[in-house]
Design brief:
Length: 123
């Protein structure tokens, strides 16, 4: 199965932008639908966005729809999360996830996770 490594987290002011990347290795990337989840301290891991196997279809949490964009490049085995108009409530550790079904919006159903990337949005 694939292994996932995120990059691109950091600190940004409210209203700013960040792009997260998640590189996959060790498997056939296009066999997996990909997703992003996030977890703030004391909270459960919540669904953010998902993208299907080819990248033709996407699905978003209502909390980020219109501000975040998920995309993938199967030639580079990488999925991205472009985050615009960031708000302090977007502060969390962001995890990418791989699954054989699309879309998977419940964290308990995911078995393949990246290590997480911290995103901090200051007010």
């Amino acid at each position: 199965q694939v292994q996932l490594v995120e990059s691109g987290g950091g600190v940004v002011q409210a209203g700013g932008s960040l792009r997260l990347s998640c590189a996959a290795s060790g498997g056939t990337f296009s066999d997996y639908a990909m997703g992003w989840f996030r977890q703030a301290p004391g909270n459960e891991r919540d669904f953010v966005a998902a993208i299907d196997f080819s990248g033709d279809d996407t699905y978003y949490s209502h909390r980020v729809k219109g501000r975040f964009t998920v995309s993938r490049d199967n030639a580079k085995n990488t999925v991205y999360l472009q985050m615009d108009s960031l708000k302090p409530e977007d502060t969390a550790v962001y995890y990418c996830a791989a699954h054989g079904s699309y879309p998977v919006t419940i964290a308990m159903m995911i078995t393949i996770w990246g290590q997480g990337a911290q995103v901090t949005v200051s007010s």
